[in-house]
Amino acid sequence: MPNASTDQSSNPTPISRIAIIGLGYVGLPLAIQFCKADLQVVGIDIDATKIDTLREGRSYIGHISDNLIEELRSQGSFTPTTDFSAASECQGILLCVPTPLNQHREPDLSYVLSTGAALAPHVQPGAVVCLESTTYPGTTEGELRRVLEEHSNKTAGVDFHLAYSPEREDPSNPDSQVERIPKLVGGLTHACRERAIELYSHAIQTLIPVESCQVAEAAKLLENIFRSVNIALVNELKVIYDKMGIDIWQVIEAAKTKPFGFMPFYPGPGLGGHCIPIDPFYLTWKAREFDQHTRFIELAGEINTKMPDYVVEKVIHALNDQRKSVKGSRILILGLAYKPNVDDDRESPSYVLMEKLEALGAEVSYHDPHIPEIRPTREHPQFAGRRSTSLSKLEPFDLILIATCHAAFADLDLSGCRCPVVDTRNCLTNKPPLYSKA
């Protein structure tokens, strides 16, 4: 860690007002938690629709209630805006913006860098700027630092503090409460880290200092690569055991009775969410700069991205058994969210399944109790505006494909269903006559 002797750390202004930039699935819950900790929070987002919704006291995230947003708004503790200059009065600024991949599966830091450029002129002396977005090691101390210094005429670690603290969100998990999730904190200098810890200590119970921003960035990637690799393993075993006539779900249930040395992971139709499908490729890209090749990580990514093809093959066989072709078949996908009981559809494999099945000539509908209408997405804009289909009439469909194991589906009675049901999540308690797993 660089020498901290030049840090602007003498008599720092107490932290009472912060700005959170990016009010999505990470930024909005974090803003709420800081409001509960009696800090004044400015929520900044370039999406004017989101800001208007929040100003009206409404939520656009399923597990956050309208009543909570209205309460914070009426109390005056939460101020949503599109104006970056509102950060000029804040002692802490947290960046919670997207870090997607581009069309070549390379890191796209445009949101981080454009946010840094817009924010930089408004960073007050002594403020701490902390990036939360997942990225490759070196981003905070490299690209973000440069853009902040270039557009502010200030020096990081001298005029303002710079830190990195990766988000750790698990929507729908009752144990995943923002204040209770241990939080890693790394800083450009020792004083930067301490100022970031001071900021987060208002709202987070357990803070874990690490040696540098790069250690924190690398740790976040490790967490998600660990999951990606293990999910790829069970996805590959699913295909192998299926050929052997062995149910992978029964195998996992048996294996997880071992009280040590095993952690259960579960197969699916592909990877979803912002983290696992994307984050490992941030490291594979950065590793090439050091002439290193991440073969193990890339193989896991290859296996996971091919799972929708395996599911489509299962759909083809199920229809073929009924002497039907995919072309012209009416298929209903149950579940658009990438994980159970949330309205989060980021990188959902359901979209890939829809694309592949429609490319084969199928007529595809979806039902999801958490997503009544598909919102515009960067990756699949053609589906925007499509609405969830009612389950009251299943007769028109030639096949039902279960892609997400929402609690609402577990006891779904499909006993009277005359069409094949293909289940990618081992979801149904009551199996219909024409039932198969994928």
Descriptive tags:
438 residues; Rossmann fold; 12% strand; disordered N terminus; 3 domains; eight-stranded mixed sheet; alpha/beta; 13 strands; N-(1-d-carboxylethyl)-l-norvaline Dehydrogenase, domain 2; 35% helix; single chain
Describe the structure.
The protein is an alpha/beta fold and 438 residues long. It folds into three domains: 17-211, Rossmann fold, CATH 3.40.50; 221-304, N-(1-d-carboxylethyl)-l-norvaline Dehydrogenase, domain 2 (Orthogonal Bundle); 307-437, NAD(P)-binding Rossmann-like Domain (Rossmann fold), CATH 3.40.50.720. The chain has helices at 27-36, 48-55, 66-75, 110-119, 140-152, 190-200, 213-244, 248-255, 279-288, 295-305, 307-321, 349-359, 407-410, and strands at residues 17-21, 40-44, 78-81, 92-95, 128-131, 161-164, 183-187, 207-209, 330-334, 363-367, 399-402, 421-423, 435-437. The strands form two sheets. The chain has an eight-stranded mixed sheet, sandwiched between helices. α4 (110-119) runs parallel beside α5 (140-152) and α7 crosses α10 (295-305). The longest helix is centred in the middle third of the chain and has 32 residues, at 213-244.
CATH superfamily of the largest domain: NAD(P)-binding Rossmann-like Domain
CATH architecture annotation of the largest domain: 3-Layer(aba) Sandwich
In total, the number of strands is: 13
Q: What would the average pLDDT be, to the nearest integer?
A: 93
